[in-house]
Known about the structure:
Oligomer: single chain
Mean pLDDT: 89
Helix content: 40-55%
CATH class of the largest domain: Alpha Beta
Order of helices and strands: HHHHHHEHEEHEHEHEHEHEHEHHHHEE
CATH architecture of the largest domain: 3-Layer(aba) Sandwich
Amino acid sequence: MPLFEKSAFSPSELEARLRLHLLPDLGPRRFHQLIDAFGNASSALCAPASAWRVLGLPAACAQARRSAEIRDGASAALAWLEGCDQHLLMWDAPEYPALLAELSDAPPLLFVAGNPRILEKPQLAIVGSRRASRPGLDTAAAFSRSLAQAGFVITSGLALGIDGAAHQAALDVGGETIGVLGTGLKKLYPQRHRSLAAAMAAQGSAVVSEFPLEAEPNPSNFPRRNRIISGLSLGVLVVEASLASGSLITARLAAEQGREVYAIPGSIHHPGAKGCHQLIRDGALLVEGIEQILDSLRGWQSLPVAPSKVPPPVSHPLLALLLAAPHTSEALAIASSLPLSRVLAALTELELDGAVVNEAGRWFARVS
């Protein structure tokens, strides 16, 4: 049975809220304003247009509320909610995640595919570049696995790159993960992550969105999505990001919301490290392992913390150089004082062992 049927809201009030939710130019603050003014969504829909104008609401909202398009959209949403593992959470209902409810612009409605109960569990967000390097993807996966094993739900935006690596790694160790979309659940973006989203919903994790089910990937949706990622979480870990990355928006929203912000440093020559370095300058906690994250969240000591794995010592000199920064083959030969032929042979062996990877002519160490 869908979760919404267990709530205190009547079917007519649920439909009224879905209709309000579909109105153009009616964001979370105006939605809350209507409920505060009229007591419930049903009364707000029945109120005269003049009453809406007094509240300063756009004329388009009042005009559209009785349209066939809005009614049909609400009916379609109610039909969707009849499906297996498809739910709706209201911001003023007991099942709504408490941390998210603290926000002044908390989403009035959250559509959930999968298990809605994990939204109340302690979460850590892992975000970063869509065009992440191989080492960045490995680092995101390693942190996600360890944090999931430590009892945290891993929250991210289901984007390509760091987000997808974090979600998949949590699933790989039997952990739980939440994907927050910048589209409606019926218009999942990017499409390349459809199978990942389906696996998350099927394996006890969840995919959520505040947007109507048919909402397209409008660029303005994604900064709004980011406040939900940070709002659900105790802290946000940025793994790899440029200065223009949306991950920095998520991190700054987290700071404004009173959440912890963590950043992983990188090479000064790597553009994907510049965003993390800026966050560190702005006060984010520089982290090199999950112990630093766990130490900053001592209030959650009841979590079943898994012992961290001590990395094996680096025995190969070329691997030690690559852990410090990516290099070309020629640069490695100069730095190691080895003949280029020996460097190329050693790199081949390391690549076969999965210890290094070549991207665009440069060699990177892989993080296990």
